[in-house]
Amino acid sequence: MVTLQDVMSSLSPLIAQIPQYIGQEPPDEYYNKVVQVFAYRGTLAVVGFNDAVKAEILKSKMSGKYTPVPAQHPAGTAIDTPARFLVWLRYKYHEETIGSHNASLFRLAQEKFNSTDTPQTYEDRIRLLLLQIPNNNQDALAILWTYLPDELFTRVKITNPADINAFFTAVKDTWLERKPSTFTYNGVNTSVPIILSNTISTKNQS
């Protein structure tokens, strides 16, 4: 019968091949690499190989600014499962890499929907800049609107998404209906750090 010790002995060389985490890649990508190792061979059938053990392995992979891992995040919630660990790691990554709320908006204003993007790659990239921004934040929503290519802007505007989640859904839906053949941005200056919420109503009027 396979024991927890057997599992740990089998996993250790595989875990060791994954570099310590110092913020070198988005948290979800790193997390997925480690979690994939957890499924190695018969680990899922070993009772002792539970979420608490997995969380400790994930914590052990942190280094640099990502140590020490706190016992709780947010306050009152123990980091004792992989899912809770990921919540903390996303927060810490945002804190170390993105910075404050205003800095997040500044970074967001440097992004746009590129011709090489799909709705999913665009959302995955942008979501990392929105980790600490409420879903109904109108400044962030205005920036997202402004940096859509004109070919998507007009069609997405018809759906009038009220928040960030609805915005990404609208982008996906309109893309599936008809993928743009060109990408023009009406001369938008992507160096502008903060776009006011009324940008939505003024875009394309010049």
- The secondary structure category is mainly alpha
Query: How many domains would you count in the coordinates?
Result: 2
| Through-space gap between termini | 73 Å
Task: Compute the CA-based radius of gyration.
Answer: 21 Å
Topology order in helix (H) and strand (E) letters: HHHHHHHHHH
Could you tell me the mean pLDDT? 83
Beta-strand portion reads: under 5%
Shape call = elongated
| Number of H- or I-type helical stretches | 10
Overall number of strands:
0
Largest sheet properties: none
Helix content: 40-55%
Low-confidence stretches: 187-206
Organism: Cetraspora pellucida
Protein name: 9460_t:CDS:1
Structure, described:
There is one protein chain. Mean pLDDT is 83; it is low at 187-206. This protein has 206 residues and is mainly alpha-helical. Helix 2 runs antiparallel to helix 4 and helix 3 packs parallel to helix 4. The chain has ten helices and no strands. It has two domains: 4-98, no CATH class; 101-202, no CATH class. Helix content is 51%, strand content 0%. It has helices spanning 4-16, 27-38, 51-60, 82-98, 101-108, 119-127, 138-146, 150-159, 164-177, 199-202.
